[in-house]
Design a protein that fits this description.
By secondary structure, this protein is an alpha/beta fold. The chain is built from 16 helices and 12 strands. Helix 7 links the parallel strand 7 and strand 8.
Length: about 350
């Protein structure tokens, strides 16, 4: 059985999430009759996480792992905590700052099925921008300082972990809130449209948005944050679930994790380069520049089905140091990561 993709608007998905509150919205999880375990997954359009889902569907990894996945788009910038709590999804890719903060606050949340070692992230600007660039000798600090008085597009709304991390990063170079404006422009085509129309002076963009916009000539790269900015060298994304659901449905959880592990291996195998490029083009647009496709393919190397304890601890420590997480009660690896395998 193939994974089912449901295409609904952000408003419709929000309405569905509200309806789902107080109801099961369709039972998911382990089965006892040998049938495939139904699971619900949502991914934000324009992010990289839809590609391994598409691979798992096309290669039959979901069925091999005993799960029947229904996949729907989550609104760009909408937090997965709300979607998980409402029962709209069982798994969703989330920032560690969002997931760990929910865990620290005692919410029904846990990290499962891996994520990435870091998220390839850049600051880009509309083509023709006069802002400093690394290509012209500017450092990441120079670029960040140049955002004073500017409007910076973000892939998530204010108050989310993604936004808070940028606020703390800018504070580290001497910019306080009020020195700049953060605007949620989402990811993928919506972010590219904001750049083309020059609604923003610059944008923080993760793969594949950054590579696509630059490769297509819609934007220029100012600096690659993942190269030398510590805040962007931590784990950048994880699969988040409800802890209670994972504990109650170990077979379904193990099945989704197994499918993702196979999908990552497929994407990272050089022998599959041509097939992977087709998946990328399906996701980001058939006219995407070959240079962008090649870079996006390289970026799959950061995906992992495991969450190494040392990397997670480094991420917890880093997010605590900059105030995204509270120092007390401390968040631990043991309470944060729970995988049924």
């Amino acid at each position: 059985m193939r994974a089912r993709w449901i295409h609904i608007s952000g408003a419709a998905l929000l309405a569905a999430s509200l309806v789902a509150c107080g109801s099961d919205g369709g039972a998911t999880g382990d089965t006892t009759d040998g049938s495939l375990a139904p699971i619900k997954v949502s991914v934000t359009p324009g992010t990289i996480w839809g590609i391994p889902i598409a691979v798992a569907e096309a290669q039959g990894y979901f069925e091999q792992a005993g799960v029947d996945a229904t996949v729907s788009p989550s609104p760009s910038g909408m937090g997965h905590n709300q979607l998980l709590a409402s029962g709209v999804e069982d798994f969703g890719p989330s920032s560690p700052s969002q997931a760990l903060a929910a865990i620290q606050q005692g919410q029904d949340a846990v990290i499962s099925c891996g994520g990435n070692h870091y998220t390839p992230t850049a600051i880009i600007a509309p083509a023709g921008s006069s802002l400093p660039t690394a290509a012209n000798g500017a450092s990441s600090e120079d670029v960040l300082k140049s955002l004073k008085g500017k409007t910076l597009g973000m892939p998530a709304a204010a108050g989310t972990g993604t936004s808070n991390l940028m606020v703390h990063t800018l504070a580290g170079v001497g910019l306080n809130e009020g020195d700049y404006t953060l605007v949620n422009i989402g990811s993928g085509t919506t972010a590219q449209a904001a750049l083309v129309s020059k609604q923003v002076d610059a944008a923080m963009a993760a793969t594949p948005t950054a590579e696509t916009a630059v490769g297509n000539g819609d934007a220029v790269e100012l600096t690659y944050l993942s190269d030398d900015v510590p805040n962007y060298q931590m784990i950048g994304a994880v699969w988040q679930s409800r802890k209670s659901w994972v504990e109650q449905n170990p077979k379904a959880t193990a099945g989704f994790c197994a499918a993702m592990e196979k999908a990552y291996a497929f994407l990272q195998d050089p022998a599959n380069a041509d097939a992977v490029d087709k998946f990328i083009l399906d996701a980001v647009g058939a006219n995407t520049a070959p240079s962008a496709v090649a870079q996006i393919r390289e970026n799959f190397s950061v995906m992992t089905a495991d969450i190494p304890e040392d990397e997670m601890q480094k991420t917890i420590d880093g997010l605590t140091d900059i105030g995204v997480l509270a120092a007390d009660p401390a968040v631990t690896y043991e309470q944060s990561v729970l995988v049924s395998r």
